[in-house]
Amino acid sequence: MKRDINAITVLLATQGMINIGAIPDPITHETRKQPEKARVFLDLLEVLMEKTQGNLSLNEADFLKSAVHNLRLVLEQGATNGGGK
Q1: Is residue 71 within 8 Å of 45, Cβ to Cβ?
Q2: Predicted local confidence at residue 84, as pLDDT
Q3: Is 32 helix (H, G, I), strand (E, B) or coil?
């Protein structure tokens, strides 16, 4: 696995998706519904985006922005559908 900004983005976004219940945990194969933990990973991605602004290639910046957008969307959909209850 490459060790670059995209790998960090995938790691954080995947953990967010696991904790919101969008994908099962790859180790336990269980589905979690922990939106507060997913929010932590979204916050980390947003900090990463803020702190790397102007220092990423266009592709890296777009990839990170898409990951943040997608995780935020899934979190919002979970909240409106009673996720985390």
Answers
A1: yes
A2: 47
A3: coil
The Cα–Cα gap between 85 and 9 comes to 27
Domain extents for the chain?
5-80
Contacts of 69 (CB under 8 A, 6+ apart): none
The answer to whether 78 and 35 have CB atoms below 8 angstroms apart is: yes
d(CA 17, CA 48): 17
At 29-81, the pLDDT tens digits run: 999 899 999 999 999 999 999 999 999 999 999 999 999 999 999 999 877 77
Q: How many CB atoms lie within 10 A of CB 69?
A: 11
- Contact between 12 and 41 under an 8 Å Cβ cutoff? The reply is yes
Under DSSP, is residue 80 helix (H, G, I), strand (E, B) or coil?
Answer: helix
CA distance 58 to 22: 28
